[in-house]
């Protein structure tokens, strides 16, 4: 029997049982899938994608920097670190009313999730007061909420949960082996500890990585395996292409992923995490329409809309609408969920017949 047939069966086992069940993947198994002939890889990814999602719908989210620059971390890819001379000036935390005004604009433009990012190592409690009011206000507008604030303490997770936070974003960025070349002020385990705290607090996870920072294909695959082996995997998996930012250490070794390599990574994310939403995040402005179309065929089903992502560019909303229309696709009118997850929620909500 072809070994990739058995490997495919592992992904299908998640569909057959429960969307929240995790399957233990090895890097060797993931590499076997990644190396499949591209038509076969896309066929398998699209087949599994259709079992969980409407293949014609794409989730739309908007990302706002609510506190820019001045971050004490030394992440080598980031324009907001105080360790790098990138020209990004530190700002104060935005006022709650200003954030809610931006959220209204995002809702009017069709976004269903509003994400807020602050350049902190970890939030101060006084700042968390304002962030919690932002979360409550955005939820009152009928939008899903997501924040990325750095590392969290247990009590901070509780406060965010009490405010009604839907998702917490905390990317692992790259593989464990490559991580020390990316950041030294925190470790991969610091990242995973925060994800664990958030999961225990009942908040959904949004976690992915960045490609094009001098890592190998094996590093990219290892990153996805770490995420896929979380119990359960993140509900949302953003895949970012690093944007060239003068003044950052990554500039010296950056090597952009080829379109086909990136499409393969999207397909692998779909196969390893069939019930997760896979988002095309930063770097999409550098993608051609054809490149993005292949990513959607590979199982991507979420994008950021709006002109800016924190401090980098993003395609215009009109461009996104035109591309989806040309493909016969549409922006999802509401939150995107795996069919298996929805079925599981319905089962858990049904009265017992015992």
- Summarize the main sheet: 10 strands, parallel
User: Helical content, roughly?
Assistant: 40-55%
CATH topology: TIM Barrel
Number of helices: 12
Oligomer: single chain
The CATH H-level homologous superfamily: Aldolase class I
Compressed to H and E, one letter per element, the order equals: HHHEHEHEHEHEEHEHEHEEEHEH
CATH architecture: Alpha-Beta Barrel
Q: Write down how many β-strands occur, each being a DSSP E stretch of 2 or more residues.
A: 12
Mean pLDDT: 87
Structure overview:
- The chain has 354 residues and is α/β, with parallel strands linked by helices.
- The protein has one domain (23-330): Aldolase class I (TIM Barrel, Alpha-Beta Barrel).
- It has twelve helices and twelve strands.
- The protein has helices spanning 3-16, 27-34, 38-52, 96-108, 125-140, 154-162, 188-200, 217-228, 259-272, 289-297, 317-326, 339-349, and strands at 57-67, 113-118, 144-148, 167-169, 204-206, 209-211, 236-241, 277-280, 302-305, 308-309, 312-313, 330-331.
- The strands form two sheets. Strands 1, 2, 3, 4, 5, 6, 7, 8, 9 and 12 form a ten-stranded parallel beta sheet that branches. Strands 10-11 form a two-stranded antiparallel sheet.
- Strand 3, helix 6 (154-162) and strand 4 form a beta-alpha-beta unit.
- Helix 3 (38-52) packs across helix 9.
- The protein is globular.
